[in-house]
Write a structure and sequence with these properties.
Layout lengths: L22 H6 L4 H8 L4 H10 L12 H6 L10 E6 L9 H7 L1 H15 L3 E6 L4 H16 L15 E6 L9 H8 L23 E5 H13 L1 H7 L7 E8 L5 E6 L2 E2 H7 L9 E5 L8 E2 H4 L3 E2 L1 H6 L8 E6 L4 H15 L5 H18 L7 H10 L9 H15 L1 H10 L10
Parallel strand pairs: 1-2, 1-4, 2-3, 5-11
Antiparallel strand pairs: 5-6, 7-10, 8-9, 8-11
Helix pairs in contact: 2-9, 3-6, 5-6, 5-7, 6-9, 9-10, 14-15, 14-17, 15-16, 15-17, 16-17, 17-18
Bound molecules: flavin mononucleotide and iron/sulfur cluster.
C-alpha cells in the first residue's frame, strides 16, 4: 500500500526507493540517534519512561492505552528475565499499516523496541508477525541482521553494559492471536487462546515473566519521542492525543492507502486526502477504527476530528485507525452480515457466550439479509449481544457485539424494511 502523507514515522522515507528500509537510509534520516542519546548520556530508565509519558503517546493497537503508563507498570526490581513483545499480528479487518512499517521503515520499530528494552530492564524482545505477510517477515529478519552487525543489538550495545537482542516470530494467521495474551500463548508454542486476566502480562507474561506488549506503530513512534522530545511529539497531535497516527483507509474512496497525519485532523480533510468519494457517490457510513469499532453515519463523521477523544465522544472508537468508508449503495444489513461471519469464524471457542453468541448473531443477521427475517429478530440480536458483552475472557465478544449494536441503531430502518418486505432498501450493488 502506498503511504500518502507522512508524520513522525514516515517523514523522509521515500517508499518508492527499494533501499528505503536499509539501515544506511534509516541512519541518514537520523535513525539510531535516540538510542545513542540514551546510552551516551546514561539516561536513567525512569527518565526515558517519563519522556514517553509526556509525549501523550497512546497505544496504536486498538485500546489507546497510554504507552508510558504501561511501561511504568513493569516491576523495576524483578530479579529474573523480563520481556518486551511487539504485536504485528494486525488481523483487524481494514487495518494494513503495521506491515508497511516493516516493509519501509523496520529500523524505527527495532530502535523503538531497543529503547523499550532499556527503559524496562529487558534483555530480550520478540516481534510476533502475522502469519500471512511473508515478505514483511523476511525483510524484518534482514533488518535485524543489519542492526546486529551495526552493534545496535546483542551484547554490550555500543560498548556499554546494556545488552539486548530481538527476534522475529512468525504467527499463524488467526485474528485471536492479536489479543495480547493469546499472542503470548502462541509465542510460547501453544494454541493461541487468551488467558484470564488478572494476572496481567506486566506481572505474568511471556514464560510467566513480566512482559510489556505494544503495537508496532506504538514502538515505532518512540525514537522520535526520545530524539526530538515528548513535547514535540505531543504538539504534533492534540492534548491527550499526542503525535501523528497512521490511518488505513479502505472502501469507496478514490485513493485507498495509509495516511500518517496529526491526531485531531478533521475526518473531512482525511477523506479529501484520500481523493474523496469514488464515482462522486454519497458518503453513507464510516467505521472509524477497524471492524470492531461502532459504525457512524457519514454526516456524523463529517463533523468529527480523527483522535481518540473526539471519536469516543461520538460513540465509537479510533481503535487501530482503520477507516472503512461506505457509500450510498451499501446495504448495511449485508455489510453487518459479513462482519458477523468474521467474528463467528474467529472466536477461539473458550467461552460459551462468545462461541455460541457469535454464531447466533451471524445466523440471525444472515436470515434477515436473505429475506427470511422474523418479527422480534432485532430484539433477539439485542438480547444475545447483552449476554455476550463484558462476560468473556477477552474482548473479541465485545468486538462482535459493537458492530451489531451500532448498525441496528443507526440504520435500523434498513433492518426493519428487510424483515417486513423481504427485500433490501438498497439495490445490492455493493455485495
Ligand atoms: C481479538 C483481539 C485482537 C487484537 N488484535 C490486535 C492486533 O492485531 N494488533 C495489535 O496491536 N493489537 C491487537 N489487539 C490489542 C492487544 O490485545 C493489545 O491491547 C495491544 O497489542 C497493546 O498494544 P498498544 O498498547 O501499543 O496498543 C487485539 C485485541 C483483541 C481483543
Ligand atoms: S471471548 Fe471469544 S475469542 Fe475471547 S477467549 Fe472467549 S471464546 Fe475466545
Amino acid at each position: 500500500m502506498a503511504i500518502f502523507v507522512k508524520g513522525v514515522i514516515f517523514e523522509g522515507v521515500d517508499t518508492t526507493a527499494p533501499d528505503c528500509w536499509h539501515i544506511d537510509a534509516y541512519m541518514a534520516r537520523g535513525g539510531y540517534q535516540a538510542l545513542k542519546k540514551i546510552l551516551d548520556n546514561k539516561m536513567p530508565q525512569e527518565d526515558v519512561i517519563a519522556e514517553v509519558k509526556n509525549s501523550g503517546l497512546r497505544g496504536r493497537g486498538g485500546a489507546g492505552f497510554p504507552t508510558g503508563l504501561k511501561w511504568s507498570f513493569m516491576p523495576r526490581s524483578f530479579p529474573g528475565d523480563k520481556y518486551v513483545v511487539c504485536n504485528t499480528d494486525e488481523g483487524e479487518p481494514g487495518t494494513f499499516k503495521d506491515r508497511d512499517i516493516l516493509l519501509y521503515n523496520p529500523h524505527a520499530l527495532i530502535e523503538g523496541m531497543i529503547i523499550a528494552g532499556y527503559a524496562m530492564g529487558c534483555k530480550a524482545g520478540y516481534n510476533y508477525i502475522h502469519g500471512e505477510i511473508f515478505e514483511a517477515y523476511e525483510l524484518f529478519e534482514a533488518a535485524l541482521d543489519e542492526a546486529r552487525k551495526a552493534g545496535f543489538l546483542g551484547q554490550n550495545i555500543l560498548g556499554t553494559d546494556f545488552s539486548f537482542d530481538l527476534f522475529a516470530h512468525h504467527g499463524y494467521g488467526a485474528y485471536i492471536c492479536g489479543e495480547e495474551t493469546a499472542l503470548l500463548e502462541s509465542l510460547e508454542g501453544k494454541k493461541g487462546q487468551p488467558r484470564f486476566k488478572p494476572p496481567f502480562p506486566a506481572s505474568f507474561g511471556l514464560y510467566g515473566k513480566p512482559t510489556t506488549i505494544n503495537n508496532t506503530e506504538s514502538f515505532a513512534s518512540v525514537p522520535f519521542i526520545i530524539r526530538d522530545g515528548g513535547q514535540k511529539f505531543l504538539e504534533a497531535g492534540k492534548p491527550n492525543n499526542g503525535g501523528t497516527k497512521l490511518f488505513s483507509i479502505s472502501g469507496h474512496v478514490n485513493r485507498p492507502g495509509n495516511y500518517e497525519i496529526p491526531l485531531g485532523t478533521p475526518f473531512a480533510t482525511l477523506l479529501e486526502m484520500a481523493g474523496g468519494m469514488k464515482d462522486g457517490k454519497k458518503l453513507k457510513a464510516v467505521i472509524p477504527g477497524g471492524s470492531s469499532a461502532p459504525v457512524l453515519p457519514g454526516e456524523v463523521m463529517m463533523e468529527l476530528t480523527m483522535d481518540y477523544d473526539s471519536i469516543a465522544k461520538a460513540g465509537s472508537m479510533l481503535g487501530s485507525g482503520a477507516v472503512i468508508v461506505m457509500n450510498e449503495d451499501v446495504c448495511m444489513v449485508k455489510a453487518l452480515e459479513r462482519l458477523a461471519y468474521f467474528y463467528h469464524e474467529e472466536s477461539c471457542g473458550q467461552c460459551t457466550p462468545c462461541r455460541e453468541g457469535t454464531g447466533w448473531l451471524y445466523k440471525v443477521i444472515h436470515r434477515i439479509a436473505n429475506g427470511e427475517g422474523r418479527e422480534g429478530d432485532l430484539e433477539l440480536l439485542e438480547s444475545v449481544g447483552n449476554n455476550m458483552a463484558g462476560r468473556t475472557i477477552c474482548a473479541l465478544a465485545d468486538a462482535a457485539v459493537f458492530p451489531v449494536r451500532s448498525f441496528t441503531k443507526h440504520f435500523r430502518h434498513e433492518f426493519e424494511h428487510l424483515i417486513e418486505h423481504k427485500k433490501s432498501l438498497v439495490d445490492h450493488k455493493w455485495c
